[in-house]
Every structure is written in C-alpha cells, then in structure tokens.
Amino acid sequence: MARSLFFVSLLASLAAGAPQPFIVHETIESVPQGFVHAGTPSSTTELSLRIGLVQNNIVGLQEKLIEISTPSSATYGQWMSTSEIAGFTKPSPQADAAVKDWLAANGLTAASTSVAGDWLTIKTTVGQANSLFNTEFQQFNHSDTGKTFIRTLAYSIPASLSGSLEVVHPTVTFPNPISGPPSVQAIGKRELTSLERRDMSKRAIPAACADITVPVCIQAIYGVPATNATSGDVKLGVSGFIGQFAQTADLESFLTEFRSDIPSSTTFDLQTLDGGSNPQGAQNAGFEANLDIQYTVGVATGVPVTFISVGGDSSDGELSGFLDLANFLLNEDPAARPQVLTTSYGTDESFVSPAMANSLCNAFASLGAAGMSVLFASGDGGVAGSRPRSCNNFVPTFPSGCPFMTSVGATQGFFPEVAAGFSSGGFSNYFDQPSYQSDAVNTYLDTAGLLEIGRFNASGRAFPDVSAQGVNFVIVNGGDVGTVSGTSASSPVFASIIALINDRLVAAGKPVLGFLNPFLYSKGAAALNDIIIGSNPGCNTPGFPAVIGWDPVTGLGTPNFAKLLTAVGL
Fold first, then answer.
1. Per the structure, how many domains does the chain have?
2. Does 157 share its domain with 242?
3. What is the pLDDT of residues 451-477, one digit of tens each?
4. CATH number of the domain where residue 316 is located
5. What amino acid positions are annotated as catalytic residues?
6. Which of 68, 337, 368, 526 is least surrounded by Cβ atoms within 10 Å, i.e. has the fewest?
7. Where does the signal peptide begin and end (predicted)?
8. Is the pLDDT of residue 547 over 80?
C-alpha cells in the first residue's frame, strides 16, 4: 500500500505542477521488488545522467544487419565500418540541436559519450533534475545489498523534445543485482586425478566428465580441437563487471592442471574502461571472472583473449556498463576489436525500462553490424528469472530478450545430454519475435503441448538461441579448486567455439560469422545437437519442456564443431 500511495502522490504532483509543454516520457507502476522508499535526497545531491537521443534511422540499421547476417543474402558477411553504422545511429541535426539548446538554456553542458553522438552525459543536482524533468527524485534502499539509489517512478520532458530525446538514465530503471553464477563449491582431489595427463587427441569422453567439467570434457563432447588457432587475426573478448577480477596465477594453475598440452604461461590481455581495473592476488580473485577466462583461454586454444574490465559509478547501475562497453568496442580500431564477445551477466527484463532496454539492444545491433558475435548467458533462474518464489507470470531476462544478440542456455551430462533445470528461457515482453526465428518458435508453440500458455508473451522474442554445458565447471579461484554451475559457464564455452570457427574462416579468406542468429536458425541449425530432455521449472510450474527442435530451455541445441565447419562452408 505504501508503494502505491507514493506513486499516486508523485503522479498527482506531476499533473498539478506540470507546465503544459511537458509530457510524461517514462513511468513505472510501483517501486520494484526488493526496494523500499527511503526518503527524499537533498536538492544539492549531485547526479550524473545519460541522455539518449533518437537515432535517425535505427530501423534501417536493423534491416541492414539482418541482410548482411543472413547466409542466403548476396551481401552476407559484408560487415560495416564504424562510420557507416554511425550514419544510421547518429541523431538528426535538428534533434541534436534541440536537446543541446534545451540543456544550455538550463545552464548545462552535455558531453558526448558515443561515436555517433547519440548519447550525452550531464552533471547536475537533484534539485535541477527535478526541475528539468518535472519529477521528484527519491531515495530507495535495496534490501539485499543495503545500497541506496536515487531514482524516480516517472519523469517528463518538454513536448518539443518528444521526437528528439529517447531516454534519460538512471531514472525509472532500478539496478537489480546483475546475476552471475552461484558460489564456488569445493571439490575433492580424487575427482581431479582421473583427468591428469590424459591424451587430448582421444575423442572418448573421460569417465570423470560425468561428475565435473574441464576443458577436455568440452573438447570430447563437442569435438573441439586442441590444436592452436592459426590465423592470428581472430580475438575473443570477455566482459568483466561488478568488481570481478581475473587472476593470472589462477589461470596458470588451471592450465597446468587441465590443459597441460599448452604452455601454462598462456595468459590474456587486459582492457579497462569507466575506471575498471584488474588487481592481482588471492584476495582479489573473482570466481565469475576466473570462470570466464579459464574457459575461454582453456577452450579457444591459441585465440588471443582479452578481459575487458568495466568499472563505473555504482549509483548508475551496471546496465550503464553494458552501454559503455558497446560504445567502447564500436569506437575501437577494428584490427584490435574482438570478433566475439561473451558476457555472463544479466538481469530481469522488468527491471529495465523499455526505452533503456531498446537503447541497449540497438547498441548490440551496432556491434553485430560491425561483424561482432555478441553472446550473453540466459540466466540461472529457469522461467522465474531472479524471482523463484514470487512470480505468477514467467520472468524473461535481459538482454536475452534483445533480438540482436545470441542468448546461451545450459545443459548437463552426455549420452544423453539434457537441459539444466536452472537454464533461463522464455519470451520477451518488450521485443517482438524476429522473423529469423519465427518458424522454429511457432513449431514449438504448436507442438509442445504447453500448459502455461497464459504466463508468457508467445509473440515475443524467444530465447535462448543455443546452449552448452553449464554444470560443475572446475575452476581455480584464489588458489583453491572448486566447481561452479550456471549459464555463465555456457556462454564462454559457446563463444570459444565460435572464435575457433572464425579462426578457420579467416584462414580460408572468408569473413567472420558476426551476428550469429540468422545463420543459427538457418544453415547452422543442423550443426547443433538437439536437446530433447529436461525443463526449466520456476514460478511453481514445470516451466518449458525441451523437445525436438528449438525450445525455450536449450534453444536450437549445443555445438557440434565438425558440423559447424561444414555449415560455414569449410
């Protein structure tokens, strides 16, 4: 009741005090789950706000992306330059001038933070922001972390800017804790010794892979070669957020134990942005970062791996890190830019405002147009997202609902390989179902015998697209050996396999795969192992069942390296 009264009070004040030229731009119905109203901040409290401008032809970019990503197209693989992409994403001169003039009239100078000039940043105060956006910023405490954030439940913009200004952040988007895998579980030495000094050329799956997952298991299950990449021009990027730091000493120990066929000194490059860093030492070990690095370096043999550590203002929320990372990569020299990016973080879609989600999704579309394969873990809550006990309708995750990236679910076991019950999947409430997946998804909806049809948006973008092993991955973390499970293990594995495919494509004089989905749902579908056992329960339901063909648990299936080579024409 308190949340509802606060929201009604806020809207009433907006309606009563708003000058006629203002229009409400974004609203949310109530304070999101996990947050409580904690009073009014001082009017002098400083705020850093990002303003996204309306891009002049984003639909044109999306259409071009699908065209150059579709294998049957005459322009397949003709990836775009940064300047070509900016031609679609830059704001019109009129929109740019309108927003900047409005800010200048209020004594504010905007700094451009993107190549195309479609994102601006302003430094202001709560009092001035309240006036600018005809709102009342409030303080909210997050019950799990104890952190306090300044947000609002609605904000307005001058009516004259309605076709120029896309989104203001952070305003109505609350920072749901970005999810990673659960904590590391200790592992016994007995389980490790059965894998030591194994002949890596043998395709038989080691018996120990029934209990734990290490690189030799991935190689055996999916036919991934242990030989070095040869092109020298393919790179693999690993995103790092929320203070997760990858340790070189842990990687060396991991390679010594589980990839003894390659030098234990094999390491990764480091890039930082937004004040990111990567301090070393056991006290700084991050199991998510170590997992991602150990299973990219350890699976994508010989492919240079870059750990991209994103810092940022904690009051801004990690979603801004997604945006800054996309803009950073788009602005990077194409020769230095990774052609594959794996990210093991995500959130519930409902925690992101539709406008912010759309802006982030368009940023991923820009990366795809530049020839980058962008992969995200689908999440570890089954159909419940981060709400295992408090959902009536299924909870889609973000950015998996974005149609311009590749969502990776999780499997486990072999003979048969089955769905991991925690593998998040479902249907977006924000994004429409893209044409490249409509046949596969409609077949599922028509034949799966679903009992929970009213709990999800059957016309939304469906995810995940693919899957890979995600249970009991052995890692070294702070010098200790343990296991981790989650789709955050699956995404680095699938990304590593794509990087190895890219290496062979480049060596053959062909373009890299870039945005994967149109390929995966056409020529690539037959190159994936169909997973037909399991489900992803949640919200007090069995969730979605895995079936023949695509399903919202494991997507199209898991990779078969040899068949993928054939599918790409090698």
1. 2
2. no
3. 788 899 999 999 999 999 999 999 999
4. 3.40.50.200
5. 288, 292, 488
6. 526
7. 1-17
8. yes
22 and 119 in a single domain? The answer is: yes
Distance in angstroms (rounded) separating the CA atoms of residues 326 and 347: 17
At 201, the pLDDT band (50, 70, 90 cuts) reads very low
Q: How confident is the model at residue 203 (pLDDT cuts 50, 70, 90)?
A: low
Say which residue the tokens 């005090």 belong to.
17
* 3-state percent breakdown (helix, strand, coil) of the chain, nearest 5: 35, 20, 45
Same domain, 127 and 190: no
pLDDT tens digit sequence for 137-193? 999 999 888 889 999 999 999 999 999 999 999 999 998 765 555 556 655 543 444
Domain that holds residue 288: 185-567
Q: Are residues 235 and 377 in the same domain?
A: yes
Which range is least confidently modeled, 194-208, 450-464, 546-560?
194-208
The pLDDT of residue 505 is above 80 = yes
What's the rounded Cα separation, in Å, for the pair 133 and 564? 51
Q: What is the spatial distance between Cα 467 and Cα 557, in angstroms, rounded to a whole number?
A: 6
Which residues carry a binding-site annotation for Ca(2+)?
Answer: 530-531, 549, 551
DSSP labels for 422-487? T---EEEEEEEPPHHHHHHHHHHHHHS--S-GGGS-TTEEEE-SEEEE-SSEEEEETTEEEEE-SH
Q: How far apart are CA 473 and CA 389, in angstroms?
A: 27
State how far Cα 519 lies from the chain centre.
Answer: 19
- What type of residue is 7? F
Q: How confident is the model at residue 527 (pLDDT cuts 50, 70, 90)?
A: very high
Q: Same domain, yes or no, for 513 and 454?
A: yes
399-422 per-residue burial string, b: 16 or more CB within 10 A, e: under 16: bbbbbbbbbbbbbbbbeebbbbbb
Which value, to the nearest 10 degrees, does the dihedral of the CA atoms of residues 122, 128, 130, 132 take? -60
Q: Do 434 and 484 sit in the same domain of this protein?
A: yes
Tokens linked to 192: 């490790």
Run of H or E including 166? strand 165-169
